[in-house]
């Protein structure tokens, strides 16, 4: 690892040649996995304007959790503002200990009501994970950038999967012990190598147009009590 030349370094070092405390940096490179130096994945390089540093050595990132092929992986984007510290004050060994919002890069939520009820993780393309903690309205929302939604709503006691159109959904209602599957057009159930079984106290099938039941093999229709078949015309062949 080579020493980094920094024009303003002497203004901030102590008598032992160390720089303690933190500095604000700007990410300039986050592709350590493909770098010719082969430093390994999950590292970034920054520039630190206050020091006149145009490019740091590869900096490790302090994470919520880290271990062998596990942990919370949130790599800063290029041009993100970050907080930089140095191992034992050595400017050649930087660490990223946090990310910073600023006047240009603003937070994804404003806490406008002052209640601090919302937690958000939002990605570059707009994927969102939201945690709502308002009493009586607690829920977790996962939303894709295109608008597909998975919602776990403790307030309403529902679990919902809704597509971006809002016309196709699966809603599990815990309070009413009810599951509702809705579609703006078709619903298909397929089990090419198994079976589809329906069991309930009552089963009711209705259509506003034609209804067709067909089997490529045999078919049994049985009733333990009376069976009624009605139609304007009934044809049995």
TrEMBL record:
Protein name: Phage tail protein
Phylogenetic lineage: Bacteria, Bacillati, Bacillota, Clostridia, Eubacteriales
Residue ranges annotated for the Gp5/Type VI secretion system Vgr protein OB-fold domain, each copy included: 25-101
InterPro entries found in the cross-reference section: Gp5/Vgr_OB, Vgr_OB-fold_dom_sf
